[in-house]
Write a structure and sequence with these properties.
Length: 153
């Protein structure tokens, strides 16, 4: 018998599940990291209840922002929909930030009228962000405006 011989097919069959298991196990830390940084509390239907404040530059005037109050934003694993606008699947990446600094840097606005906790969790929805006030209340940044949003039953 040679020093090294390649086993026949039936003897190699056990290796495939082992190789697959080892490969998948190698990706587990990356998957765990991605899931750990997601915030799924934002999934649901959210009714905008008030226009709180605006960024320095907006795509909506005050009247247009007020017309959005009462409308519903739907956030699912595979889309964010607000009226006719559908966004790509959200990654739901979340981070805890100091609201005053974050809003000033990212939205060129003041956080003073938003009523956000400090720190606040901000969740990336793909086409916008949501600030989690609690499990039933968000502040959603849309069109340069910050809207209070309440979870619908």
């Amino acid at each position: 018998m040679p020093f090294f011989s390649w086993p026949t097919l039936p003897h190699r069959a056990w290796a495939l599940p082992v190789i697959v298991a080892l490969a998948l196990n190698g990706f587990a830390p990356f998957y765990a990291y991605a899931v750990e940084n997601q915030d799924r509390r934002v999934i649901g239907k959210w009714r905008l209840t008030a226009a709180l404040d605006s960024s320095e530059i907006t795509s909506l005037d005050e009247g247009e922002a007020e017309q959005l109050v009462g409308q519903v934003m739907t956030i699912t694993d595979d889309r964010v929909q607000f009226g006719k606008r559908k966004c790509l699947p959200p990654d739901l990446d979340a981070e805890r930030v100091e609201p005053r600094l974050y809003v000033r840097e990212k939205a060129h606005a003041s956080a003073s009228k938003l009523g956000l906790p400090n720190p606040v969790t901000v969740v990336n929805l793909g086409c916008t962000v949501a600030f989690v006030k609690n499990r039933n209340h968000l502040v959603i940044h849309w069109g340069g405006w910050f809207f209070n949003a309440r979870r619908m039953p």
